[in-house]
Design a protein that fits this description.
Layout: H1 5-23, H2 27-35, H3 37-64, H4 71-98, H5 106-136, H6 141-164, H7 166-172
């Protein structure tokens, strides 16, 4: 079966990174990575999704929506913008790299996208709550954005394992 180009590129970079770890005499770390491949890939892709989310938030807050005087409104609009950009990126990398999900038909694909989106909306509501708390508690929004993303990454992995990509994993076992 042909692998998707995204997965091929990721595996090439992954193997290079593991090779470097072994050359640096960190074979145990490389073995740990190999033994927990799905979780490690999720951490990497989650980290990349977090970077995309934070960069989109900064772009929204400090460039696109810069002129909005109400800080709560600006934070919320920037947060929603960042969420949409990161959602698209996160679905793509989770589907192709982390869980290597294959949908047998269009209906299954729509179900997968829908459940992914609903779960992400749930965790986004948590993130928005934390960001609003930052405004009211006078906490730096970038610091809170990082904290919120850590919480969201953990919740998203749990939801992905238990709800979104569960069927795909059961088929491959």
């Amino acid at each position: 079966m042909k692998k998707k180009i995204t997965l091929k590129v990721f595996e090439t970079l992954e193997n290079f990174g593991l090779w470097i770890l072994e050359k640096l005499h960190l074979k145990k770390l490389a073995d740990l990575y190999r033994n927990h491949l799905e979780g490690m890939r999720y951490l990497i892709c989650g980290g990349l999704s977090t970077v995309v989310n934070i960069l989109a938030y900064i772009l929204g807050s400090y460039a696109i929506f810069f002129g909005i005087a109400d800080s709560t409104l600006k934070v919320n609009i920037s947060e929603i913008f960042a969420f949409i950009v990161a959602l698209i990126f996160a679905y793509w990398v989770n589907k192709t790299i982390v869980f290597d999900s294959k949908c047998e038909n269009f209906k299954a694909l729509l179900k997968e996208i829908s459940s992914f989106t609903v779960c992400r909306i749930f965790t986004e509501i948590i993130s928005i709550g934390l960001m609003n708390f930052a405004v009211y508690a006078n906490i730096n929004d970038i610091v809170m954005k990082i904290i919120a993303n850590i919480v969201v990454i953990i919740l998203n992995f749990i939801l992905s394992k238990l709800i979104i990509f569960k069927k795909t994993e059961e088929k491959s076992n």
